[in-house]
What does this fold into?
Amino acid sequence: MILKAALFIGAAFFLLVLLIWGSRSEYVRIADIYIEGNKITSEKKIREVIQMNMAGTYAWFFPHDNIFLYPKRRIKRDVLNTFSRIYDAKVRFVDLTSIVVAVKERKIYALWCDDVLPKRERNLSVPCYFVDDSGFVFAEAPRFSMNVYFEFYGRLNAPFVNEAPAGAERGDLIGTSFLTPYEFGRVLMFKNLLESIDLETYKFFVREDGEYEIFLKGKSAMETAGGKIVFSPKQELEKILYDLKLAIDTKFPEGGSQDITQGLEYIDLRFSNKVLFKFTP
It folds into this structure.
């Protein structure tokens, strides 16, 4: 009985030593890491995050960079948490000494510029931030002239807005969202609906009371002097667009929407079956 136990322990110890020796063999250790899909994010920095995850050992014996043991899920998690521009990462096996990490970067859709709407033109000394098509804030934008991208304004903790606490520093805004993806999608949908009736827009504002304002480009040389449309986030977008189109066709039977921005201050769509126009005298 004692002999059997000794043989079992000896065999187990031998197997453990064999596994440790095998796991440390250069033939199953990751030596090459290939990065794919990054156009802006530094390949060097992505590789550094991956290599940090593969440094060290499990239980002092089994190396993290063993092709059968490397922390695949942790690599993906840390890449996504470290680089806000990257929204997806896949780690794939290539061969016994190589892996590839394929990333997908967010595409610039618009800018978030401030929680307060400027009275005139935007102050170019105040930084804006890139947002993707879900409203996610992922990078500070360079200072460039007006109207390069559609602009969003409003507090990040306004109604329907998530993730960023009140009083957050501007540097803390990266990684937060302007609106929830659902509400942001509704805003984009309304923007596209307006364009379908020849009303071009250039900025959007969430007011302190939670109501929405979207600003129209003018038809004259002063392209940002086209007034604004006020509406509520709770309204049915197709319905208010139908009411708006009907009101424009009635008020401007000859020119249609082509004349609407001339001297326009605002259009208010918040009243049921009623569209209010205000023009400068």
Summary: Residues 157-170 have pLDDT under 50 and may be disordered. Residues 2-23 form the longest helix (22 residues).
